[in-house]
Amino acid sequence: MEEILEFFYTNKEIIFIVILSVFLGVEVISNVPAVLHTPLMSGANAIHGVVIIGAIIVMGHASTTSTMILGFIAVVLGTLNVVGGFVVTDRMLEMFRKKSKKK
Amino acid sequence: MNELITLKETIEFTLGESVLEISYVVASVLFILGLRMLSHPDTARRGNIWAAVGMGIAIVATILFHKMEGEPIGNVGYIIAAMVLGTIIGWIVALRVKMTAMPQLVSFFNGMGGGAAALISIMEFPHISQSLVQQYGMLNGQVLSILLALMIGSVSFAGSMVAFGKLDGWIKDITTPLLRYINIALLVVLVGFIVYIMSLGSINPKDVMYLVYIMFAVALVYGVLFVMPIGGADMPVVISLLNSFTGLAAAMGGFLYHNQAMITGGILVGSAGTILTILMCKAMNRSLVNVIIGAFGGQASGAEKEKGAVKETTSTDAAIMLNYSRKVIIIPGYGLAVAQAQHLAHELDKLLEENGVEVKYAIHPVAGRMPGHMNVLLAESDVPYDKLVESEEINEDIENVDVAVVIGANDVVNPAAEDDPSSPLYGMPIVKANKAKNTIVLKRGMGKGYAAVENYLFYDDNTKMLFGDAKSSLQELVNEIKQL
């Protein structure tokens, strides 16, 4: 019990961020028209590419060959997630824009 | 003099750190605003760019200013090389792929993120803080976030790859009840690994690396088997679910590094993805548990019913029928997308409108392979926004529709969803094409839809079938109408 309380105390900022982010995510998404579900999913997909920061950190402190190789792969995968995600989303949304201009 | 140098170093140190933290705050704000703007048609594109800018800021700031125990980021050359490589591949793939292949591409990129999270865990495990281990043993937050990121990331990676393969058509469903028990067993094993590793007490993490590798392998197998039995019709739900999984894995990495940008971004996607998953389930009237446990389609195919005769029609007859109607709805499905016939569908609707026919598109929430997929495809061929009507709205007035043209859609117009409780589709909202005065179905053959369920709409008295590839059938229709 004491450990749990201590855990909460030492990690209170993070717990705050997590709870608020959960509500934010729900709030932001719930008013989305069905039309935008696919681009939104794709956009969200690109945002979790933020994992690349972790990949950069781990690669930045890699010293052995094996960790270098793994780190390199991790950064490539993370970049694919980020770049591919944003470019695809942009491509989808470009079509919507073209149309609304005409209207 | 020496004092001065130390002072200067301290200031530089804090300066870099603050710039880094400020960049993360800015990035987080841009993520939130970007996601918010992505939810409105007018601002969506800008939202995506804002989020991308946020990501760029976070990445650059990390490379420049991040320090771990005073050590700045090294191997910068390799990092940049890896990023250039990833950018080139990602960019080319993203630009080259056809709009119909969008869902599997999202799945693919999603898997990449999951894979990155899993690799980070594998590399960080041996570096778990010694002081933490001495104080608490392995029962600490770092170990937990590493192991969770490893598990979730690997499942997301393997699962996304299978989902990608399934949507792309080179992996088939495997449905055996046995798989369900294997999956539950694997999940128990994975949780068991986490519990066991965390109960090890004060050990050197390097000594139990083999456990981490085994766990990684088990998680990959679980990811594959988790998606394997899930039917194609449920694939969008699965992708969305895996998307939120990867978000969680990224957030776990954030806990590990106390990195606010990773936490906000990851949790944001995790929760938004979960809501999106639930929204999709609702659109199909299926519970999430059902999607995951009950393999869709496959065995059950609903009650056998008296089938009427299939009535075939010709493009000439169909063209006349359409041309002299007042109200026509087009119900597009994945078949339309596969045949790349969306432009022709638009041509048909323009022709009919010129001849005084009111044409609307009935968009089922899960038409295509993802919610909103059909809207994207039709937007690509310049169909005006206001012509795309959601199925509920169409259904209210369906009795007054003269002709419902079903193009490459099957499950979303299957009346069994309404009146056959034994059908696996039962309860899913459909476009009630069977209630329209007439229905023309453009279809390649009598094959079943993605859910592998017989569709009695095709045997209905008011239904006429126009067999052939959607593209050539539509082309013929357009030509015939022009000649009238």
Give the topology, please.
The complex is a heterodimer of chains A (103) and B (484).
Chain A: H1 2-10, H2 12-30, H3 37-47, H4 51-60, H5 65-102
Helix pairs in contact in A: 3-5, 4-5
Chain B: H1 2-38, H2 44-65, E1 67-68, E2 71-72, H3 76-96, H4 102-124, H5 130-136, H6 141-168, H7 177-198, H8 209-227, H9 235-257, H10 260-284, H11 288-293, H12 315-323, E3 327-332, H13 334-338, H14 342-354, E4 358-363, H15 373-380, E5 388-390, H16 391-396, E6 403-407, H17 416-419, E7 438-443, E8 463-467, H18 470-483
Parallel strand pairs in B: 3-4, 3-6, 4-5, 6-7, 7-8
Antiparallel strand pairs in B: 1-2
Task: Give descriptors for this structure.
heterodimer, A: 103 residues, mainly alpha, 2 domains, 5 helices, 0% strand, B: 484 residues, alpha/beta, Rossmann fold, six-stranded parallel beta sheet, two-stranded antiparallel ribbon, 18 helices, 60% helix, elongated
What does this structure look like?
The complex is a heterodimer of chains A (103) and B (484). By secondary structure, chain A is an all-alpha fold. Chain A has two domains: 1-31; 33-103. Chain A is built from five helices and no strands. In chain A, helix 3 (37-47) packs antiparallel against helix 5 and helix 4 runs antiparallel to helix 5. Chain B has two domains: 100-296, no CATH class; 315-483, TPP-binding domain (Rossmann fold, 3-Layer(aba) Sandwich). Chain B has helices at 2-38, 44-65, 76-96, 102-124, 130-136, 141-168, 177-198, 209-227, 235-257, 260-284, 288-293, 315-323, 334-338, 342-354, 373-380, 391-396, 416-419, 470-483; strands spanning 67-68, 71-72, 327-332, 358-363, 388-390, 403-407, 438-443, 463-467. A six-stranded parallel sheet of chain B has the order 5-4-3-6-7-8. Chain B contains 18 helices and eight strands. Chain B is elongated, with a radius of gyration of 27 Å. Chain B has 484 residues and is an alpha/beta fold. At the A-B interface, helix 2, helix 3, helix 4 and helix 5 of A face helix 1, helix 2, strand 2, helix 3 and helix 4 of B.
